[in-house]
């Protein structure tokens, strides 16, 4: 454990005013939830917006509803994504099929996807990984002839747009996450969005079966959120990140997890979500643009820039030349407290708990992505000095296959001052 300024890989700052609004949610629980649902329906232009205890609970609820409508069982996932996604599929007792991905975009390998979707496919999950926009329109074109649903995973892309349309409105149904480190957080939580009346009715039925969370559990979440806001700050994050038993940043496959309707404290914590979304989106866009412009000056690295231009990048992914380079960058970043993350440690095909369902899956690109990708922090607590230090990592590491001579962080383009409004929070 090293006492130093330490950046979390991702963060979603809350103010004391937001925390107070969370407690105030207890005073008018029904009104607080109703108002939140109304705001989200209006913002996304959808008929249905239902709030639950986590993104995993949201995805599981959707899958149960779609299975009720269709009877099919196969769910097609990208070979590289958050482990919570297959956790929800298994919680719904459905079958997983993995489709390989493209290294250049992090999106589906389209030729493989076209061969996989058939009359047994319940749904396909296009995932806006790290906030990089998936081509949901193309997924819909592949699914339509086979009657498969398109379930949009917008958990990491709240606030992004594609051709003017809000992310979360592109599929038949979608979900967002409000977990720690998302664009907007209430500690944990999720929302289900759909404009399809048939799907919405089926989801409402599943939602009505979910129990209410106890007040004790709601207070426990509130305390965790309050502590998180204190210790996620760069001045103090060295402490929780240095305690192994806290498992900060650990990627986990959940064999089981609780499912509830969102409690009034979490609903209250989302009271100022529009203001926070605007603030965090501006910060992430500014910092993402800085990194992208800087990396454009040196060769040997790959950023999915065509997609990230449309989205609010939760963490900026950078594809390194090889696994050794990834290891070197992550070790150096950890020593310096710079918040560069190795992201998910394996592709879904190599998750031990999924071996029974993914054995034989051909996902070589997803496996390579897992071995080479790192993500750079873009949240509001990343300062101009932090940006320069993160970029300097890619100069200081002795690469074997990439030439970066003559490039220094001093030569990197400076970010616009207007984009740094949250840097000193």
Explain the overall architecture.
The protein is α/β, with parallel strands linked by helices and 425 residues long. Helix content is 40%, strand content 11%. The chain has 16 helices and eleven strands. The chain has helices at residues 16-24, 29-44, 55-70, 84-91, 110-116, 136-143, 197-208, 215-231, 238-241, 264-269, 273-295, 305-308, 323-336, 355-358, 364-372, 384-396, and strands at 48-52, 74-78, 95-99, 121-124, 149-153, 161-162, 165-166, 173-177, 190-194, 315-319, 373-377. The chain has a seven-stranded mixed beta sheet with strand order 1-9-8-5-4-2-3, with helices on both faces. The model is unreliable at 400-425 (pLDDT under 50).
Largest sheet, order of strands side by side? 1-9-8-5-4-2-3
Number of strands: 11
| General form | globular
Count every helix, treating DSSP H or I runs of 4 or more residues as helices.
16
Class from helix and strand fractions:
alpha/beta
* Share of helical residues: 40-55%
Which sequence of SSEs, written as H and E, runs from N to C? Answer: HHEHEHEHEHEEEEEHHHHHHEHHHEH
Mean pLDDT: 89
Segments where pLDDT lies below 50 for 5+ residues?
400-425
How far is the N terminus from the C terminus? 24 Å
């Amino acid at each position: 454990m090293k006492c130093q300024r330490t950046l979390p890989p991702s963060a979603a700052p809350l103010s004391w005013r937001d925390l107070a609004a969370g407690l105030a949610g207890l005073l008018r629980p029904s009104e607080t939830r109703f108002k939140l649902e109304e705001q989200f329906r209006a913002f996304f232009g959808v008929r249905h917006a239902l709030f639950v205890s986590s993104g995993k609970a949201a995805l599981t609820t959707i899958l149960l509803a779609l299975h009720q409508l269709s009877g099919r069982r196969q769910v097609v996932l990208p070979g590289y994504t958050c482990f919570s996604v297959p956790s929800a599929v298994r919680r719904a007792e459905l079958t997983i099929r993995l489709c390989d991905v493209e290294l250049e975009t992090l999106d589906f390998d389209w030729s493989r996807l076209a061969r996989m979707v058939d009359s047994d496919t319940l749904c396909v999950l296009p995932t806006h990984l790290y906030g990089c926009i998936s081509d949901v329109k193309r997924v819909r074109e592949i699914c339509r002839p086979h009657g498969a649903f398109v379930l949009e995973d917008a958990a990491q892309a709240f606030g992004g747009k594609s051709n003017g349309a809000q992310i979360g409105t592109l599929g038949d149904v979608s979900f967002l996450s409000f977990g720690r480190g998302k664009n907007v957080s209430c500690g944990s939580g999720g929302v289900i969005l759909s404009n399809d009346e048939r799907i919405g009715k089926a989801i409402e039925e599943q939602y009505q079966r979910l129990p209410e969370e106890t007040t004790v559990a709601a207070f426990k979440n509130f305390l965790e959120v309050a502590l998180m806001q204190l210790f996620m700050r760069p001045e103090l994050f060295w402490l929780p990140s240095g305690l192994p038993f806290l498992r900060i940043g650990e990627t986990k496959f959940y064999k089981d997890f609780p499912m509830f309707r969102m409690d009034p404290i979490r609903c209250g914590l989302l009271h100022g979500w529009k203001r926070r979304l605007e603030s965090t989106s501006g910060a992430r866009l500014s910092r993402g643009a800085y990194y992208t412009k800087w990396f454009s000056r040196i060769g040997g690295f790959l950023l999915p820039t065509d997609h990230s231009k449309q989205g609010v990048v939760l963490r900026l992914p950078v594809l390194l030349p090889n696994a050794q380079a990834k290891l070197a960058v992550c070790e150096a970043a950890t020593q310096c407290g710079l918040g560069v993350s190795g992201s998910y440690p394996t592709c879904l095909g190599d998750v031990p708990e999924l071996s029974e369902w993914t054995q034989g899956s051909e996902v070589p690109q997803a496996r390579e992505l897992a071995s080479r990708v790192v993500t750079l922090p873009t949240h509001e607590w990343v300062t101009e000095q932090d940006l320069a230090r993160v970029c300097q990592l890619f100069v200081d590491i002795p690469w074997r296959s990439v030439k970066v001579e003559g490039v220094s962080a001093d030569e990197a383009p400076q970010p616009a001052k207007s984009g740094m409004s949250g840097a000193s929070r």
